[in-house]
Amino acid sequence: MAFYIVNEDITEMEVDAVVNAANKELNGGGGVDGAIHAAAGPDLNKACAEIGGCPTGECMVTWGYDMDAIYIIHAVGPIYKDGKSDEERLLRSCYQKAVELAVTHGCRSVAFPVISAGAYGYPKEEALDIAVEEIKKGADANERLEFYLTITDAKVLGIAKEKYAQYFE
To answer: Which residues of 137-157 are buried (b: 16+ CB within 10 A; e: fewer)?
Structure first.
């Protein structure tokens, strides 16, 4: 199993695929989504407009365009309401479907952010735990792939270093 937690900018990772914490419209927003759209350049906006959107809990793939990554896997995480509105299942689905897409596209390495933990309001520690659990499952099932969880948020990074120190590179 190759699973690492890193404190790196996902837009600068040298991996085959990066996972984008996208919105349903795939039109670039704030946080990770905005940073990925800015790094990938205007062709990403055109490709996402052609796709036309993506349901919550699902993923779509585009080229990486101006990024080092070959692919961008756009994962639409849930907006946190109350923890009783199917958010956990939808969030887990994002990671599972992103892993499936990385495998079917022949990727050797993929970098994930902590999906829904920013503007979508998912409690940071819960979002981190789900990310680690689901990415580890993907790593266990796909030994030839390298998986990275990128964290730049200071609070989430602190929690990760305390709970998941064994996965830091």
So the answer is: bbbeebeebbbbbbbbbeebb
What is the number of helices (H) and of strands (E) in the chain? 5, 6
At position 108, the amino acid (one-letter code) is R
Which residue is listed with tokens 């961008």?
72
Instruction: Please tell me the total number of residues recorded for the chain in this structure.
Output: 169
Ranges of the chain whose pLDDT falls below 50: none
Angle formed by the axes of helices 87-104 and 124-141, to 10°?
30
Predicted pLDDT of residue 1: 62
Distance (Å, whole) CA 32 – CA 157: 15
For residue 74, the surrounding DSSP H or E stretch is strand 71-76
> Which of 157, 163, 147 is closest to 3 using CA atoms?
147
Please identify every residue annotated as catalytic: 33
Q: Which of 161, 83, 146 is nearest to 116 (CA)?
A: 83
Torsions phi, psi of 130, nearest 5? -65, -45
- 122: phi then psi, degrees, rounded to nearest 5: -65, 135
Do 48 and 28 meet the contact criterion of CB atoms below 8 Å apart?
yes
